[in-house]
Amino acid sequence: MAEFDKYFQHRQIGLHYFPDSLHFRNEDIKKWIPELKRLKVSWLILKSEIDRAIPEAFLESLMHENITPIIEFNLPINQSINTRELKILFQVYARWGIQYVILFDRPNQKANWLASTWVQNDLIDRFLDKYIPIARLAIEENLTPVFPPLEPGGSYWDTAFLRGSLTILKRRNQEEIIKNMVLSAYAHTGGKDLNWGAGGPERWPQTRPYITPENSQDQLGFRIYEWYQAIAKAVFQKEFPMILLQAGLNSFPDKSSAKIDQRNNPWAAQTEIIKLLKDQQGTNSLENSPYEPIPSNILCCNFYQLAGEVGTKENNYSWYQDGLPQCSCINSLIGEQESPSGVHTVAKSKTFLSDERHPIRHYVLLPVYESGVSDWHLHVVQPFVKKHQATVGFSLNEAILAANVTVVASSKSITDECLNDLRKAGCSVERISGDGTSIATQLSER
After folding, report:
1. Rounded to an integer, what distance in angstroms lies between the CA atom of residue 264 and that of residue 408?
2. Which of 67, 131, 237, 412 can pair with 62 through a Cys bridge, CB separation 3.0 to 4.6 Å?
C-alpha cells in the first residue's frame, strides 16, 4: 500500500497556478514542483503571454511528475493577432510536449468586446471568424484547442452562446475542430448546493435562457457541465471531454468580496468536490454520498488557486499564502501520511486522528472583523500552525470538517454557541483567548 501511495495521483484533480506569467523561475521550480507532487494533482493551468513561451525547464519539471500543463492564453477578441508569432509559439509548445491550449476567455461577456462591436449583429459568427483560424492553426501543430469557457449566465446567455457556436461550427463543416473538440466551463457554485442543476435540461425542462422558473434549477452552479454536454449531444449526438475551471468558487475572484467569510469561503465546497473525486477514483462506495457522481468525460476539475501575490483580492482564495498552507483542501489531497511544505512527520499532540467525517486533522479558526482579517492573528498563530501542521481558516463550515479545532478568538468574536455546534459535530474544540501576550503564551505551550 505504501508503494502504491508513493505513485498514486488524483487523475481528475488539478489546480490553477499563479494568476500571472511571472512565476516560472528556477526558484519557483524548487519551491512549487515538490509541493504539487505532494498534492498528487495531475493537471495545472498556466497563463502564457502571446509573445513569449513559458520556460521549457518549468514545463519539463511538471511533466516529469506526470502533471499535465494546460496553457491559458486569453487572446484579445478586439485586437488583431499576429498569427505568424502565434504559430511559432504553438510549434515550441508542441515540441515540448504540451497538448491542451485555451485560446480565449468568456467571449459571451460584453466587457470583453468593444461597445461598438458588441451591439453589431451575428456576434457568435464574428467570434468564430476569429476563433476558427487560430484553432485550426493549433491543430496543425498537434495541439488541442479547448473551446473557451463562458461566463456562467453572462451578457449573452452562456447556454445560448454555446448552442449557437456548436451549431455554426457544424454548419461550416469544421470537421477537424469538431473531431478535436474539448469543452471547458467555469464550475462555480453560485453559493448553491453542489447538486444544483444536476440532471441538466432533461431534469429541468422548464428552464430557458435568462428564465429559471420558481421550483426549477439551471446551469448556474457546479453542475454546469451537464447543461453544456446536453447541448453538445443535441447538436452532435455525442458528448465531449471537458475541463472545469475555478471549481467550487462562488464566483470569479475579482467579483467576490475582498474578505473571506462564511458566505464566500469556497474551501468547504472544494473539499467536498475533492472527496467526491477521490471516492470515485478509489474503492469507496458513493452509495451514501449526498452528491451525484462526476462523470469520466470530465478530464480535470481545476481548483483556484495554488498561490498568488500578497495584497491582491485574488490571493484571498490561494491555497498557500505567505508560503504557508491555508486551505483545508490541502490536507484532503495529501492525507495524514504526509503534511505540506516538505514536513514528513506529524507533531506529537493530544489530538484526534482524521476520519471520513472529519477529513481535516487540525483546524485553527480565526475571527473575521468588519475591517477584514486581522494581520495580528495571522502572525501570532504562525508558530503554532508550523508546529502542528494545522490548517488556518475563518469558516465554521470548514472547521466542522476537522477532528480538532483551535479557536483563537474571544467569545464576543466567535460565540460559545458556535463552539457547541462544533462539539455536536464531533470536533474536539479548544478556545485560546485573552490579551496579546497571553494568547501567544498559550499557543506556545501547546
Report:
1. 21
2. 67
* Residue 369 bridge partners (DSSP): 372
**According to CATH, what is the number of the domain 340-444?**
3.40.50
The type of residue at 234 is A
pTM, to two decimals: 0.76
As given in the structure block, the three cell numbers for residue 188 are 462555480
Contact 274, 329 (CB under 8 A): yes
Helices (H) then strands (E): counts for the chain: 16, 16
DSSP structure string for 315-329:
GGG-SEETTEE--HH
Query: What value does the mean pLDDT take over residues 208-222?
Result: 96
List, in order, residues 6 or more apart from 148 with CB less than 8 Å away. Answer: 102, 103, 104, 105, 106, 107, 131, 184
In the beta sheet, which residues pair with residue 16? Answer: 45
For the chain, the first-to-last Cα distance in angstroms comes to 33
Order of strands, sheet of 360-365, starting from the edge strand that comes earlier in the sequence: 391-393, 360-365, 402-408, 428-432
Would you place residue 99 in the very low, low, confident or very high pLDDT band (cuts 50, 70, 90)?
very high
Q: Do the strands 144-146 and 183-186 form a parallel or antiparallel pair, or are they unpaired?
A: unpaired
Three cell numbers written together for 162: 454555446
Q: What pLDDT does 387 receive?
A: 85
* Cα dihedral 344/349/354/359 (nearest 10): -70
Start-end of H helices in 298-363? 328-334
Domain spans of the chain, in order of start: 2-321, 340-444
The CATH T-level fold of domain 2-321 is TIM Barrel (3.20.20)
